[in-house]
């Protein structure tokens, strides 16, 4: 990419840059400029550089790229020294941890050449310093922030970006002031605290005593106090304003902590720590724009991006057997957090789904000031704040992959006194939100959606809502629920009529919390201005997750599976009705009521299936299970026809097309309609299937392998954790020959 690269300052950052260039073959000649002859000798001996010079103007002569990686305090002097040697076309970039100060220095030192200067900051490092610590992998999968300004040549910025990308880094751009503030909070402040804690303890009388007993917590917290004092000295001085602001913020936080301890305020203490716990997991996930649960288990703090979006490879055959407890119901888990938060008093929830979608809802309420303990093994304790007790979150609420979170919250937030903004991942950002915004506006809400009616959703607080009657244009429980939740805050009655029955968990659970919802045929009605009462709540296993095993055990030779304690609310059991019509052997045992929701143990045995025309009224009752039903259809004798299922096109992926593409790969005959599909059953093969990050697509094709003649490889399966954490392990324990592999991109 570059003929001759000059690296000025050959420490850990510069040396690692040289090593990476070398390894990727990105530079013809690498030359270093350094004050220290010894460093240059080391660089040559380590094979990192081809030439070295102590004269900086000489070092940069003829270079088409100059990377300055000296401490920020000497940056201006260094730039002044090298400037006379720069050729007109040379690009200059840097690795300084502070950007506004460096930009001012560069502007002064480089004069007309400043346009070719691209300020940068690779977020990577170690406690070790010096060229001998150089590491060709230091920047791989780490973030590099570029902070070009108005007079930076866009072509120069583009080339520097391309170089970092080629080195394997993830490149972001932001304004320099923003960079300095963000880094002050996320890097400079923690370093300052680590240095300060160790220094404070070391000053005490017998510090050897303290350090002898210092345990893991001390070691973890103070690891970065081993970093280079000179470098940090410079950073604290050069980023003075932002560091002081961050320190002020921290001082407020530590005061709050102190008061909570002084006042014996358990709730405040638990609030601080549970919020911190989950916020950490949430931020790591957001940054990686990927899996919440994986980020929760990652120990990485250094800006490392997570690419573990795994591939499932499922060998053909296998059988499914055993007693399998699938995780808690996702729809009910969302609602349990929402209603418990709005209730007076505490609510203890059991069986809560610790999947990413439900955790996104939980996090949103923490962000709005609700103290929530857990989840631990499905138990969550929510300290309700009452209908009017939520607080402004102070930042957009991130809903991840979850349509239910975003749509239900839009309704609920329409009635709050404060403004909010809801954002989501790439998939959620493509899904329609006007379907909820429209009826809510009729109620008086002030809501803006993004381009094409998609996220982000911005909700203005303080609107006076009035009850309406709404005829749902589509059979959607999310839209129904959004309107009913807004109705809690509306004057008078709010009622919704649905064109076909949809899941009624919102209505049932509101009644369970002592908030009456009346039902008259297809219409549900509530009156605003009441109150919810906290209590106990049991979330049964999710029939939508059980569905994969209902299909799997039906199609696998010798399959026999018991799924205990599954929710069998009649608005959710369409999948059982459809499979039974196809000839499946499914029995409901132990039917009972659990807190207002019917549950049963499902017993399913392998059976020959036949194709059917799926009755349209069953579609909304099996909406999320239809991808699994497609696999049953591919294994059935004859053809199965689905119509009236256009809603499948606006789920986490276009589930009609994405399933059709996968079926085509396997060699399953089918015909796609705008609102459905016709599938002809018969033997099929294997191949590589793309899930498009849609959990239900991934799990459906995993089950398909039970009857395939060759392995099925399914790409991008991370989002399985949105609804079914532990799917791969459970399926394997039951007999599916599923292996989780690193993503294609990482191999
Ligand atoms: O209310 C709910 O919990 C859900 C309703 C359905 O969506 P629609 O309302 O868009 O049909 C369903 O697909 C989703 O997984 C969960
Ligand atoms: C459609 C689904 O969920 P959501 O709309 O909440 O993203 C689903 O889980 O299949």
Automatic annotation (TrEMBL):
Sequence ranges assigned to domain Prephenate/arogenate dehydrogenase in this UniProt record: 3-291
Question: Which parts of the sequence bind 3-phosphoshikimate?
Answer: 330-331, 335, 476, 478, 624, 651
PROSITE patterns from the UniProt entry: EPSP_SYNTHASE_1, EPSP_SYNTHASE_2, PDH_ADH
Superkingdom, taxonomy of origin: Bacteria
Report the sequence similarity comment from the record: Belongs to the EPSP synthase family.
Gene that encodes the chain: aroA
What residues does phosphoenolpyruvate bind to? 330, 403, 431, 478, 655, 696
UniProt protein name: 3-phosphoshikimate 1-carboxyvinyltransferase
What CDD domains does the record tag this protein with?
Answer: EPSP_synthase
Citing just one GO molecular function, the answer is:
3-phosphoshikimate 1-carboxyvinyltransferase activity
Location of the active site: 624 (proton acceptor)
Entries under Gene3D superfamilies matching the protein = 6-phosphogluconate dehydrogenase C-terminal like domain (1.10.3660.10), Enolpyruvate transferase domain (3.65.10.10), NAD(P)-binding Rossmann-like Domain (3.40.50.720)
Give the UniProt keywords, A-Z: Amino-acid biosynthesis, Aromatic amino acid biosynthesis, Cytoplasm, Oxidoreductase, Transferase
Q: Name one Pfam family in it.
A: EPSP_synthase
Pathway-wise, it operates in: Metabolic intermediate biosynthesis; chorismate biosynthesis; chorismate from D-erythrose 4-phosphate and phosphoenolpyruvate: step 6/7
* Primary site of residence: cytoplasm
- Enzyme Commission number(s) of this protein: 2.5.1.19
The record describes the protein's role as: Catalyzes the transfer of the enolpyruvyl moiety of phosphoenolpyruvate (PEP) to the 5-hydroxyl of shikimate-3-phosphate (S3P) to produce enolpyruvyl shikimate-3-phosphate and inorganic phosphate.
Its localization reads:
Cytoplasm
Q: Which reaction does it catalyse?
A: 3-phosphoshikimate + phosphoenolpyruvate = 5-O-(1-carboxyvinyl)-3-phosphoshikimate + phosphate
Q: How does it assemble?
A: Monomer.
């Amino acid at each position: 990419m570059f003929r001759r690269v000059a690296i000025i300052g050959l420490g850990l950052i510069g040396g690692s840059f040289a090593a990476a260039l070398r390894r990727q073959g990105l530079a013809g000649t690498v030359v270093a400029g350094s004050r220290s002859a010894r460093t240059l000798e080391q660089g040559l001996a380590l094979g990192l550089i081809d030439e070295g010079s102590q004269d900086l103007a000489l070092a940069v002569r003829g270079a088409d790229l100059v990377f300055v990686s000296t401490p920020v305090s000497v940056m201006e002097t260094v730039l002044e020294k090298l400037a006379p040697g720069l050729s007109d076309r040379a690009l200059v970039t840097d690795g300084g941890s502070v950007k506004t100060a460096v930009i001012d220095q560069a502007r002064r030192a480089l004069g007309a050449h400043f346009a070719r200067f691209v300020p940068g900051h690779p977020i990577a490092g170690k406690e070790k310093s010096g060229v001998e610590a150089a590491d060709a992998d230091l920047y791989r999968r780490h973030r590099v922030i570029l902070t070009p300004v108005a007079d930076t040549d866009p072509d120069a910025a583009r080339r520097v970006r391309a170089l970092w990308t080629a080195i394997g880094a993830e490149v972001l751009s932001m304004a320099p002031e923003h960079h300095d503030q963000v880094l002050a909070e996320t890097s400079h402040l923690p370093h300052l605290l680590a240095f300060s804690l160790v220094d404070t303890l070391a000053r005490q009388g017998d510090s050897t005593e303290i350090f002898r007993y210092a345990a893991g917590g001390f070691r973890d917290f103070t690891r970065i106090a081993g970093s280079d004092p000179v470098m940090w000295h410079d950073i604290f001085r050069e980023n003075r304003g932002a560091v002081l602001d961050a320190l002020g913020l921290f001082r407020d936080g530590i005061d709050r902590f102190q008061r909570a301890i002084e006042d014996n305020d358990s709730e405040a203490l638990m609030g601080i720590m549970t919020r911190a716990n989950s916020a950490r997991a949430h931020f790591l996930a957001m940054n990686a724009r990927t899996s919440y649960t994986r980020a929760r288990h990652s120990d990485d703090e250094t800006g490392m991006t997570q690419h573990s979006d795994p591939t499932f490879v499922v060998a053909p055959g296998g059988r499914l057997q055993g007693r399998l407890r699938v995780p808690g119901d996702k729809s009910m888990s969302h609602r349990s957090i929402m209603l418990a938060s709005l209730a007076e008093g505490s609510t203890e929830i059991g069986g809560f789904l610790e999947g990413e979608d439900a955790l996104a809802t939980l996090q949103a309420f923490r962000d709005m000031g609700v103290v929530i303990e857990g989840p631990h093994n499905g138990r969550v304790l929510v300290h309700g704040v009452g209908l009017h007790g939520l607080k402004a979150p102070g930042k957009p609420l991130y809903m991840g992959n979850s349509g239910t979170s975003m749509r239900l919250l839009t309704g609920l937030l329409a009635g709050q006194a404060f403004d909010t903004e809801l954002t989501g991942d790439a998939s959620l950002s493509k899904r329609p939100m006007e379907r909820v915004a429209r009826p809510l506006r009729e109620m008086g809400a002030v809501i803006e959606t993004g381009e094409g009616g998609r996220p982000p959703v911005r909700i203005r607080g303080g609107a006076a809502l009035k009850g309406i009657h709404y005829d749902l244009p589509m059979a959607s429980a999310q839209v129904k629920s959004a309107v009913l939740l807004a109705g809690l805050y509306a004057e008078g009655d709010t009622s919704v009529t649905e064109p076909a029955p949809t899941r009624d968990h919102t209505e049932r659970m509101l009644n369970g919390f002592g908030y009456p919802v009346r039902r008259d045929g297809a219409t549900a009605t509530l009156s605003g201005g009441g109150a919810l009462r906290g209590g106990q709540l049991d979330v049964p296993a999710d029939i939508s997750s059980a569905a994969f095993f209902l299909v799997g055990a039906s199609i696998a030779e010798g399959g026999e599976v018991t799924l205990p304690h599954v929710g069998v609310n009649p608005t959710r059991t369409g999948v059982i009705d459809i499979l039974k019509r196809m000839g499946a052997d499914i029995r409901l045992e132990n039917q009972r009521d659990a807190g207002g929701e019917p549950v049963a143990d499902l017993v399913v045995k392998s059976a020959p299936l036949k194709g059917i025309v799926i009755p349209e009224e069953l579609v909304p009752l099996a909406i999320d299970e239809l991808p699994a039903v497609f696999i049953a259809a591919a294994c059935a004798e004859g053809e199965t026809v689905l119509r009236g299922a256009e809603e499948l096109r606006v789920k986490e992926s276009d589930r009609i097309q994405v399933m059709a593409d996968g079926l085509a790969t396997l060699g399953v005959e089918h015909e796609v309609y705008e609102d459905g599909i016709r599938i002809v059953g018969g033997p099929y093969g294997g191949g590589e299937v793309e899930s498009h990050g849609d959990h239900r697509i991934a799990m459906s094709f995993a089950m398909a392998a039970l009857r395939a003649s060759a392995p099925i490889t399914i790409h991008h399966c991370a989002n399985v954790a949105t609804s079914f954490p532990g799917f791969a392990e459970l399926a394997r324990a039951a007999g599916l020959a599923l292996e989780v592999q690193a993503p294609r991109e990482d191999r």
